[in-house]
Amino acid sequence: MTGLLGALLPAVPLVAGLAGLLLPPAPRRTGATGGDRARTIAVTLGVTGAAGALALAVALLLTVDGPTETSSTWVDVGGLAVTLGVRLDGAAALVAVAVTAVALAVQVYSIGYLRRGPHDDVDVDHRYPPYAAQISLFTGAMLLVVVAGDLLMLLVGWEVMGLCSYLLIAHDRRLPSAPAAAMKAFLVTRVGDVGFLLGIALLGVSTGSFRIADVLAHDHSTATLTAAGLLLLAGVAGKSAQFPLHTWLPDAMAGPTPISALIHAATMVAAGVYAVARLYPLFTAAPVTLTVLGVLGAITLLLGALAATAQDDIKRVLAWSTVSQLGYMTGALAVGSPSAALFHLLTHAAFKALLFLAAGAVIHAVGTTLMSEMGGLWRSMPVTFWCTVVGLGALAGVPPLAGFWSKDGVLTVAEAAALEGTGPAPSWVGWIVWVAGLVGVAITAWYAGRLLLRAFFGTPRLPLVRPHDPPAVLRWPVLLLTVPAALLGLAGFVGAFADRLRFPTVPVAGSEDGLVHVGPAMLLPLALLLVGAGLVTLGWRRDPTADPADALGPLRPVFARAFRLDDVQHTLVVRPVRALARVVRAGDEVVVDGAVEGSGRVATGLGAGLAALHRAALPRAAAGVLAGALLIGLAAALIGVNR
What we know:
Helix content is 72%, strand content 3%. The protein has 25 helices and 2 strands. Helix 13 runs antiparallel to helix 14 (314-334) and helix 14 (314-334) packs antiparallel against helix 15. The radius of gyration is 31 Å and the shape is globular. Mean pLDDT is 88; it is low at 507-512.
């Protein structure tokens, strides 16, 4: 029964998505009957598929009481077996519930968000059927990653997510930045996926099977594990936006806001963290890989937090905060606690989905994403305001909201790894993760406070706009997500919840003795939280009309451009690749095409010359025949004389 639930979990949204792709896109003409019918069917398929997947995930959570696996051999070539099956445990069930809950919220929210709004001059709703179908496929692909019992099945879900992200980011074709952002996301993640594919191939060849249980049980050499682990981390860096492959995620904000919620909360960025947790015993057996992961996680954490301080676009603030929070998750993995990483993944899914959907309500009301054009919204949008307060509080780590408990769990295990050496990586990795995490607490509180003050307080900066709370179809998903964003952290006190996030294949170390830690160590993060929130509040109170980011001085443009790492990538990668492409194109056109076209021109010229001879006038032809006869006769006479 459990195996059947696991197999149906990704199948339901995938079938709904494939069925939705068969629908004709709704026509551009407003009020068209065919378009209304196609939209209605698309809404039904999308919501039903997400709701069915959520029901299956909850049923799976209630029935799975330990690791369960079902598989059957699909193909065996040269002793290398590929299986079809599912691998289920408590962690997989919890992640599946988070994925499907966010997907359902996004499907319902999109019904109202992708309609003609008060600031739209055209109907933005004419391609809703493929949009809803692609969300279903996106959800099904992530669920396939969650339950896959074979590395190749996991890879299929991994790659389908990349394709769906490309399509969804580019959905709004009115925006000139959307196609470019989609292409950038696709190409940057593909760079990492090359390494991910090679890592899977290396593990499969070493084991003789791609079945995850076989791969984990096999006695690999240290060199194989190190090489495979580093290759897998390349894919993780791409999907989970880790330095240096993080640059695609902020630009992906060109997509519709519900898609930002889906990508940031429950699918793309969560996949890399989950994949490392799934294969964690392989990484602990090769500490070099966790050392690399810890360094990248610490850099990503601080980079994302600092970049978020200087953004004016509300969605880009949240995007860079996602980059930073992913650094906390990968840092927890590096210091030896996949449970803490997944706990923060779950709470982050709740409060980040809440924040993006609340930001969508603000954008829907005021018609802009720029905080410099907002202000004073707390009076006209009280529901959105209080939901945003909860989300930003959870993001910053305000007790007792969800983010406080999960972030404190990451900091606790990092502290233990630094001071007691409990982690699988060297203790200095624990130090950099711990210090980066503490600094990140203060910076996160600062930029979260800035977002709240700039968007909801002060005087309205668009006086002609009359904003209001969104309609029910947008409001209820936001309200319901507020509950886990506020209370999910308290689940860490429940033993059954904590036990489900443990991995039986991971030895229980000192850093894995619990999800929630109450003690004096909590005081330092709380003090840093107050410092960050206090500084931004003091700066705002001095001049409520000024942007607190002005206090950054000459660092503001540096942070706003994220240390110009995009420019560095453009200089070191994009320009050389384009130059090489131009050389290859020129070589193809001049050498390859030149040889082919040159031989054609020679043949054409020769044929034209021979044709001219055949088309000669009668006198010239007769003279030619006589001359030929004369030459033949002369030759015959000479031959006769010689005899």
